[in-house]
TrEMBL record:
<dbReference type="InterPro" id="IPR054542">
    <property type="entry name" value="Cys_met_metab_PP"/>
</dbReference>
<keyword id="KW-0032">Aminotransferase</keyword>
<dbReference type="GO" id="GO:0019343">
    <property type="term" value="P:cysteine biosynthetic process via cystathionine"/>
</dbReference>
<dbReference type="GO" id="GO:0030170">
    <property type="term" value="F:pyridoxal phosphate binding"/>
</dbReference>
<keyword id="KW-0808">Transferase</keyword>
<protein>
    <recommendedName>
        <fullName>homocysteine desulfhydrase</fullName>
        <ecNumber>4.4.1.2</ecNumber>
    </recommendedName>
</protein>
<dbReference type="GO" id="GO:0047982">
    <property type="term" value="F:homocysteine desulfhydrase activity"/>
</dbReference>
<dbReference type="GO" id="GO:0003962">
    <property type="term" value="F:cystathionine gamma-synthase activity"/>
</dbReference>
<feature type="region of interest" description="Disordered">
    <location>
        <begin position="1"/>
        <end position="29"/>
    </location>
</feature>
<dbReference type="GO" id="GO:0005737">
    <property type="term" value="C:cytoplasm"/>
</dbReference>
<dbReference type="GO" id="GO:0004123">
    <property type="term" value="F:cystathionine gamma-lyase activity"/>
</dbReference>
<dbReference type="InterPro" id="IPR015422">
    <property type="entry name" value="PyrdxlP-dep_Trfase_small"/>
</dbReference>
<dbReference type="InterPro" id="IPR015421">
    <property type="entry name" value="PyrdxlP-dep_Trfase_major"/>
</dbReference>
<dbReference type="InterPro" id="IPR000277">
    <property type="entry name" value="Cys/Met-Metab_PyrdxlP-dep_enz"/>
</dbReference>
<comment type="similarity">
    <text>Belongs to the trans-sulfuration enzymes family.</text>
</comment>
<dbReference type="GO" id="GO:0008483">
    <property type="term" value="F:transaminase activity"/>
</dbReference>
<keyword id="KW-0663">Pyridoxal phosphate</keyword>
Length: 357
């Protein structure tokens, strides 16, 4: 097979990577391999260590992020495996607003004396840099979930490395189509591939990507030992979803930007938060009651947690007890899908118009 002449663009790599070699009668896609055990004498040995369906997904996502990827059974399986790298008593820096599962894990580990956590306003780069002193790990999302604060990824990576700390970025919201943290200096990227990467609200899947071979080996060893890899079908669905990632991200970003333009002047909307790209928008309404009424009044938009599917969903985040109290009570997170933007707006507008003035 001839080699391409130029480095390929992300849209092409999204479609082309993670495929078997082109040979007559070979399928174009790696089939689902259902196996717990392999005939001895090769490299795979056992289903907890290796699976062709994982590898195909990992090759594709690793290529897009610029490192080597390991698939996990969920975003949280990936996150807890990475957090487990810190030594006993290490200091971890994290944003005060983060995915609730990450915050709960940090609190749980801290309560058990496993680590100490320092929470920062991730938009305050100087304060983050100061917090990096004597830290072992700096962990953040940008933009944060659900507050949509944006971090200076490059500056934070530089400050963390200066202090001798490792940097982990949860890239679930941006996806490698919009942001590649390893290129900006991060040591590890984690994903809830459940969201935009798989993209169809039908699978739980996680991933870790790193360009550091030694770190890759350590993380692979952890996954082998803990057995928190995905099932082959989940990995296959993840790759199946990934094939259209660039199209879905493009469309939901365009829809989100247009909805932000229309939402901003609506009298029921106090604040619209949007980081300028991606499919997640947060709107702040006057109260929890207003927000609860909004999520009950839509027809197209589904009231549901999670995000990143082809279908538009919305949720008042503070309905979860673990959501920090600094997230406004009336904040509704919108996960903008790939539907027609006028239909999405009409539905949102009629629901907003019902709110008491
Ligand atoms: C959903 C989510 C997770 C957790 O992923 P699961 O696949 O649900 O385990 C982690 N980080 C972010 C930013 C998320 O949105």
């Amino acid at each position: 097979m001839a080699e391409p002449l130029h480095p390929l663009h992300p849209a092409t790599r999204t479609v082309q990577t993670g495929r078997p070699p082109h040979r007559p009668d070979e399928p174009l896609n790696v089939p689902i391999t259902l196996a717990s055990t392999y005939v001895a004498g090769g490299e795979l040995e056992y289903g907890r260590y290796a699976n062709a369906s994982w590898t195909a997904f990992e090759d594709a996502l690793g290529d897009l992020e610029g490192g080597r990827c390991l698939a996990f059974g969920s975003g949280m399986a990936a996150i807890t495996t990475v957090l487990d790298l810190v030594a006993h008593g290490d200091k971890v820096v994290a944003p005060r607003h983060s995915y609730t599962g990450t915050l709960l894990s940090l609190a749980d580990l801290e309560m058990r004396g496993r680590l100490t956590a320092t929470y920062v306003d991730i938009t305050d780069t100087a304060a983050v840099a100061e917090a990096c002193e004597d830290a072992a790990l700096v962990w953040f999302e940008s933009p944060t979930n659900p507050s949509l604060e944006v971090a200076d990824v490059e500056a934070i990576c530089a400050a963390a490395h200066e202090a001798g700390a490792r940097v982990v970025v949860d890239n679930t919201f941006m996806t490698p189509i919009l942001q590649r943290p390893l290129e900006l200096g991060a040591d590890i990227v984690v994903h809830s591939a459940t969201k935009f990467i798989a993209g169809h609200s039908d699978v739980l899947l996680g991933a870790v990507v790193t360009a550091d071979e030694q770190l890759y080996g350590v993380l692979k060893g952890r996954r082998d030992l803990h057995g928190n890899a995905p099932g082959p079908f989940e990995a296959w669905l993840g790759l199946r979803g990934l094939r259209t990632l660039h199209l879905r991200v493009e469309r939901s970003s365009a829809n989100a930007a247009e909805l932000v333009r229309r939402l901003a002047p609506h009298p029921a909307v106090e604040e619209v938060r949007y980081p300028g790209a991606g499919g997640i928008v947060s709107v702040v309404l006057a109260s929890a009651d207003h927000a609860d009424l909004l999520v009950r009044s839509t027809a197209l938009w589904v009231h549901a947690t999670s995000l990143g599917g082809v279908e538009s969903t919305l949720e008042r985040r503070r309905r979860w007890q673990a959501e920090p109290a600094t997230v406004p009570d009336g904040l509704v997170r919108l996960s903008v899908g790939i539907e027609d933007v006028d239909d999405l707006w009409d539905d949102l507008e009629q629901a907003l118009d019902r709110l008491p003035g």
